[in-house]
Amino acid sequence: xxxxxxxxFVTAAAGSLLVSCGGHGDGVSAAPSxxxxxxxxxxxxxxxxxxxxxxxxxxxxxxxxxxxxxxVMRLGLAQDGTVQVPPITAHDQAGWYQNSPTPGQTGPSVxxxxxxxxxxxxxxxxxxxxxxxxxxxxVRLENGTSAEFTVTSVRTVAKAExxxxxVYGDVDRPELRLITCGGPRTGDGYLDNVxxxxxSHTTRR
Length: 205
Hints:
Elements: H1 3-14, E1 58-63, E2 68-75, E3 94-97, E4 107-112, E5 136-141, E6 146-158, H2 164-168, E7 174-186, E8 189-204
């Protein structure tokens, strides 16, 4: 990450990362009062992590295990300092936070998506909580290559306990974070967040 993008990334992580779920103003809370543990490491972590790739913007996300095949748009920061979210549309798609590393670079690349999109129904990440350790994720990059990831952990956490360091903290290999809303639904939205942690294991053209 460049020094400039690292500052923006840390600024967002220290504030709040909001992802609207269904147009209710509900979102992904990333308050600094969240968990302090690093990214979960398990025996299922890929044994041969891939070398870091050059920076190249993600353009498509595929998760075969839950039927996701979506374009990826770029997301920046809103005027209030929170991360922008994909628009609520009938043709919902995921969004990559452009101040995080690109998929395949060293560090946690962050991709956000809706679980519901208001009157349009289900969002692109509606089945994110069904992923399991060992499931495969492929991110197509603008330069024509793909970054391949294996799920290492799936967590559903209360928004008030969002594990900021685990999601945004420094790691020494290419990793991926997929984030949406989840858990019980109230009149204003969802009470929890679903967070998928994944590690890069190979690259291909």
